[in-house]
């Protein structure tokens, strides 16, 4: 297989991964609520645990599989990940109880290193001239998959609440079969190294952050930003289903709109806005727009308001890349890879904490125990965290 064809397969693999993920998001509230015989607002707590176990298992296992791919090659690890995702979707599609959903997500988290291994595959077959372009396909696959997946997932519910899981399983396992028969190994045996448990320690990457005291404040700002984003990422489907009685179809359409807006911001707007206003202002304005979007979500009383509030929220997407750029600019060239690995581990930790925090907050403020009924509580917390992140970033970039 020529390099270009291999890149094409990796792109399709990542695209199908994200489509599969996007397919099931719109149906999770209704599925969990029906399975547990509870209201959709209380189902959010159970959904938070599903997100938690996936993120936790991925945090533990991704470094192990990444290091394992340095010994046995990318192909077997990538195929293992694809097969694991396929089994997860089958488990969830046929799950007779919530425990089976939990088991499926656990398997998916263990096998969930496809993006990491695919990135290593791209590095193996790229040279200096093609590396940036090839890595750009990772972001393109994520954006496109998040447009296609939720939209189709919402439509598929016309054939039943579990139809998106069957579709995701078929897509993933077909891609696994294609890879099994067609995909060559990218890592030459001469470039392989023996697996070492010490290098597969998931906490090791976090400890490396101590090496960059000059950007400690910016890293903290990025951490708070990651945590705040789970007010939307973990809660959107449950909030809209509860507050506005959105169906999986409407939830899917809304997430497809998010995909379009995010892709526009990442592919077009950042290239125009950041050079004009500068990297630092992109951070402040972006985080402030995120906060405005969050507060508007919390205050929304009609469905159209949620779609309108998506505009400032998604425009705030200029902040993340600018913040990462500011951090990278303070770190020497020979430590960039180590830094990015550490930031990825940090993002994984916030993905463990964030879903439980935001879904439980939503469930509490929509329960009879709450002092007031306030479904938007998690969005308010998210907005306050975004404002906090902007203040931390400002103080870090303008020390007295």
How would you describe this protein?
The chain has helices spanning 3-24, 28-36, 40-72, 74-94, 98-111, 114-125, 131-156, 163-182, 202-207, 216-233, 236-243, 248-277, 279-299, 303-315, 319-328, 336-364, 377-397. It is built from 17 helices and no strands. The protein is mostly helical and 400 residues long. The mean pLDDT is 82. It is globular and about 65 Å long. 78% of the residues lie in helices and 0% in strands.
Low-confidence stretches: none
Biggest sheet architecture: none
The radius of gyration computed from the alpha-carbon positions, rounded to a whole number of angstroms, is 21 Å
* DSSP strand content: under 5%
- Helical percentage: over 70%
The ordered H/E elements are HHHHHHHHHHHHHHHHH
**Backbone structural class:** mainly alpha
- Given the C-alpha coordinates, what overall shape results? globular
Q: Would you count the extended β strands for me?
A: 0
Distance between the termini: 57 Å
């Amino acid at each position: 297989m020529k390099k270009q064809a291999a890149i094409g397969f990796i792109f399709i693999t990542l695209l199908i991964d994200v489509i599969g993920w996007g397919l099931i998001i719109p149906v999770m509230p209704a599925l969990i609520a029906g399975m547990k015989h509870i209201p959709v607002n209380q189902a959010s707590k159970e959904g938070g645990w599903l997100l938690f176990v996936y993120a936790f298992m991925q945090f533990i296992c991704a470094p192990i599989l990444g290091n394992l791919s340095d010994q046995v090659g990318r192909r077997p690890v990538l195929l293992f990940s694809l097969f694991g995702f396929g089994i997860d979707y089958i488990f969830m599609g046929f799950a007779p109880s919530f425990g089976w959903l939990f088991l499926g997500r656990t398997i998916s988290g263990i096998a969930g290193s496809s993006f990491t291994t695919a990135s290593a595959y791209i590095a193996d077959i790229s040279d200096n001239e093609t590396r940036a372009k090839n890595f750009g396909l990772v972001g393109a696959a994520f954006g496109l998959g998040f447009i296609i997946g939720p939209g189709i997932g919402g439509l598929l519910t016309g054939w039943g609440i579990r139809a998106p899981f069957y579709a995701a399983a078929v897509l993933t396992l077909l891609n696994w079969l294609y890879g099994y028969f067609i995909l060559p190994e990218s890592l030459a045996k001469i470039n392989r190294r023996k697996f070492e448990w010490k290098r597969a320690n998931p906490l090791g990457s976090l400890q490396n952050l101590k090496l960059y005291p000059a950007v400690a404040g910016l890293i903290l700002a990025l951490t708070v930003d990651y945590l705040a984003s789970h007010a939307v990422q973990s809660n959107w489907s449950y909030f809209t289903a509860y507050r506005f009685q959105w169906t999986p179809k409407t939830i899917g359409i809304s997430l497809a709109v998010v995909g379009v807006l995010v892709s526009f911001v990442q592919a077009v707007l950042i290239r125009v806005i950041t050079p004009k206003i500068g990297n630092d202002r992109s951070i402040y304005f972006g985080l402030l727009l995120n906060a405005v979007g969050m507060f508007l979500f919390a205050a929304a009383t009609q469905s159209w308001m949620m779609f309108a509030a998506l505009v400032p929220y998604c425009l705030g997407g200029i902040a993340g890349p600018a913040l990462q750029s500011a951090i990278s600019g303070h770190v020497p060239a020979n430590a960039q890879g180590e830094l990015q690995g550490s930031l990825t581990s940090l993002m994984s930790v916030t993905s463990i904490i964030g879903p439980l925090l935001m879904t439980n907050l939503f469930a509490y403020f929509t329960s009879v125990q709450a002092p007031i009924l306030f479904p938007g509580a998690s969005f308010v917390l998210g907005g306050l965290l975004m404002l906090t992140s902007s203040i931390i970033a400002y103080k870090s970039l303008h020390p007295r």
